[in-house]
Amino acid sequence: MVKLDAGSTLKRLRNRYRLVVMNDDTYEEVVTFKLSRLSVYIMLSTIFVLLVGLTVALIVFTPLKYYIPGASTDYKSASELRQLKYRVDGLEKQNAYNVQYIEGIKKALSGNSTVKLDTIKLDVPKTEISND
């Protein structure tokens, strides 16, 4: 393998190159740039950092942040949402009990309900009576 010397690598980064944009029909030079590899790397890195910064700023400072799943921006709103969820669950359960109760009343009033007897044997412990 070829070992790269730090000095030669730095020289390669600083070598100047010319980028010429020409008109294809007339071969006239439209624009000429003098570039080095180092300047191209710096320019591309700067553009990348600016694009990332603009994207982050766009998400943070606009309502786009609400479209990111799991990104709750306010702890208070998240806790309020959780409390509302518990209340709705409790109300749904209470509504199911009310519907079941009303159905039972309707069956009892119509007279066509069959009574199911509870036939489970219960083992009741005997209590001891002490003489004091």
Structural write-up:
This protein has three helices and two strands. The chain is mainly α and 132 residues long. The protein folds into two domains: 11-68, no CATH class; 72-109. Strands 1-2 form a two-stranded antiparallel ribbon. Strand 1 and strand 2 (29-36) form a beta hairpin. It is elongated, with a radius of gyration of 40 Å. The termini are far apart. 0% of the residues are buried. The mean pLDDT is 86.
Spell out the helices and strands N to C.
HEEHH
Total DSSP E strands: 2
Oligomer: single chain
Strand order of the largest sheet: 1-2
Round the Cα radius of gyration to an integer and report it. Answer: 40 Å
Biggest sheet: strands, sense, closure? 2 strands, antiparallel
**Helical region count?**
3
- How many individual domains? 2
Distance from first to last alpha carbon: 103 Å
Strand content: 5-15%
List the SSEs and their pairings.
Elements: H1 6-14, E1 16-22, E2 29-36, H2 37-60, H3 75-110
Summarize the structure.
The chain is mostly helical and 132 residues long.
